[in-house]
Amino acid sequence: MTRPPQLSLRTLNRALLDRQWLARRAPATPAEAVEHLVGLQTQVPTNHYTALFSRLADFDAEDFSRRFEARAFVRISLLRSTIHTVTARDCLRLRPVLEAAHQRPFGSSFGRRLAGVDLAEVSEASRALLEERPLTAEELGRRLAERWPAYAPRDLAMVARHFLALVQVPPRGLWHRGGAARHTTAQSWLGAGLAEDGSVDELVLRYLAAFGPASVRDAQVWSGLTRLAEVFERLGGRLRTYRAPDGRTTLFDLAEATLPEEDAPAPPRFLPEFDNAFIGHHDRTRVLPDEVRAAVWRGGMRPDPVFLVDGFVRGAWRIDADRRHTEAALVLRPRGPLTADERAALTAEGAALLAFHTPGARHDVRLEEGADRG
């Protein structure tokens, strides 16, 4: 049997940039982008704005915000049981497929803290309360504890998060606005039931379209689901295989997908923290070098917003602005030296990002002193 071809790290990198619409900004709508990417992770409520700015030509944040408020998009716990911005259609279609990942914590010590309580009963009580009006987790927990006083309010509220399809309602997630994390059910918010025709097979195919080539373990880390090997085996006729740069790991891709050249151009790009482009694989070295990872991962738990140079994460960034947003600075913290050309291109892209986030302010893009020395 002929061995599958082995891919270089740079080929995987350029494929990821291409599939993620980071090699060039796409002339597409936000809905097309969000569905192609199978959602945008938005643990930070406004991260979808930077994510779409870096991927779309002529992205209009205020228009997106209006559509978000009009319920064309929602923020809901999906992949890895983390909050993602998705279209209304994908919200209803994907949430049932990812149910197993959401209920897994109840087989752990967390579940034991609720021993003796009827989880279905708590879920239905939560549904009734949340469909009456959106509530924060704290408010919901207090209401549930009136009925189940032997259990911690926080634990009771978590039942709703894991057993119900809950969306966080605006103004949280709107452009230059914010609010508490209040929840209601997706069915109530969108006026429609959850879809019954979604499948894990479809989810894997969509993952490969946006993140491939990728391994079974990559797909499991991205989705939060387990036992996906059987899904890849079932899809075999629709996939092709490669070998990873290590020569051992099998990578899968859509049979019709093409790969870019490893020396394809890769302009600088800015990504928000938790962007799936750099956390959507088990092996993240295709975009996040090991020597940079520790520098952008705060305490090993939460990444900083990052920037890409030559396709790879090269450092972190932040915006410092005064309260009135009359002055704003984009602060770059590179890991390792940048060439003069890299620095110029990164500064130009950064200036565009800063103007996007803080229009009308006096702007400055600066390198954090000594940060590029590694």
Question: In words, what does this structure look like?
Answer:
This protein is of the alpha+beta class and 374 residues long. Among the domains are: 171 residues, no CATH class; 82 residues, Alpha-Beta Plaits (2-Layer Sandwich). 40% of the residues lie in helices and 17% in strands. It has 17 helices and 14 strands. It has a five-stranded antiparallel sheet. Helix 8 crosses helix 10 and helix 9 crosses helix 10. The longest helix is centred in the last third of the chain and has 18 residues. The radius of gyration is 22 Å and the shape is globular. The mean pLDDT is 95. Pfam families: AlkZ-like.
Key features?
single chain; 374 residues; alpha+beta; Alpha-Beta Plaits; five-stranded antiparallel sheet; 17% strand; globular
Beta-strand content estimate: 15-25%
Count of distinct strands: 14
Q: Runs with pLDDT <50, length 5+?
A: none
Largest sheet: 5 strands, antiparallel
| Quaternary status | single chain
- What is the terminal-to-terminal distance? 45 Å
Helical coverage, percent range: 25-40%
| Global Rg | 22 Å
Task: Please state how the strands of the largest beta sheet are arranged side by side.
Answer: 1-3-2-4-5
| Secondary-structure content class | alpha+beta
- Mean pLDDT, all residues: 95
Structural shape: globular
Number of helices, counting only DSSP H or I runs of 4 residues or more: 17
Organism: Streptomyces triticirhizae
Protein name: Winged helix DNA-binding domain-containing protein
Pfam family, one: AlkZ-like
GO molecular function: DNA binding
